[in-house]
Structures are given as C-alpha cells and as structure tokens.
Amino acid sequence: MNGPGTFAVSGPFSGYGDGVIGIGIGRQRAVGGMLxxxxxxxMGILKIVLMALAAFGLVDAAFRREDAFRAADKQNKVFWLxxxxxxLVVSYLFSLLSILPIAGAVASxxxxxxxxxxxxxxxxxxxxNRRRGGSSSDGPYGPYNGGR
Length: 148
Prior knowledge:
With 148 residues, this protein is mostly helical. The protein has a domain at 43-126. The protein is built from four helices and four strands. The chain has a two-stranded antiparallel ribbon. A two-stranded antiparallel ribbon has the order 3-4. A hairpin with a 2-residue loop joins β3 (138-139) and β4. The protein starts with 6 loop residues before the first strand and ends in a 5-residue tail after the last strand.
C-alpha cells in the first residue's frame, strides 16, 4: 500500500499491520516551510524593533547633557553611550536566539524606562514642545502686554 504521499516503514514492527504511515510528505513539508517562513519573518521584525530601540536610546543619550546624568545619579553619559552602542552592534550582528542581543535589549529598555525619564526630569523636560524660559504671556515676538 505505497501510494502517493505515503511511505512504508521497514523495521522491527513491519510485520504488524501494513507498515504504512499515512502522512502526506509534501503537505507536511509545505506546512513546515510556511511555519518557518512565518517564524523567520517574526524574528526579522523583532530584530528591527530591537535595533531601533537601541538606536533611539543611543541618539537620545548623545543629545543629553553630561551633568544631567550625574545629577540624576545614573552612571555617566559615556557609560550609556558605550552600552547602547554595543547593544546596537550586537543586535545587528548576532541572532536573536543568543544571549548577547537579549542583554542588549535589556540595557536599552533600562535606559528608556529608568535613565531617560530621570535625566529628562533633571535637565528640565526635553522634547519638541519644551518652553525655553519666559512667562505664559509671552508671544512669538516677546511679552504680550494686552495692547497697552
């Protein structure tokens, strides 16, 4: 009973039954290939996300002031630049299933969740909508005095 998509098994149990395993080999390989393709796509997207996380942390740390890191008691700027730079390189070079990209992801998350908010608070906010001095009645060309 060797039809298409089946194969005979010879061995110690070949005398019991007809010795045929009824799994379609072509279908099994196609499903396995689709699962591996989906897994590889997911891992590729995850690798891009982790690289973006490390790159964002690296650029953010590069534009922060050195004294803000010391005032927030969060190591120093050079330390975080080195750690985040290594995290970026490691997440690019190595597979995500090894330990080094996982350690880099942990370092990037620690920077973004713990260090960045503390440094922003010490340095007076940050971001695109930060006010640079003045009072709330200042207009674009100086203080607004109500038409007086």
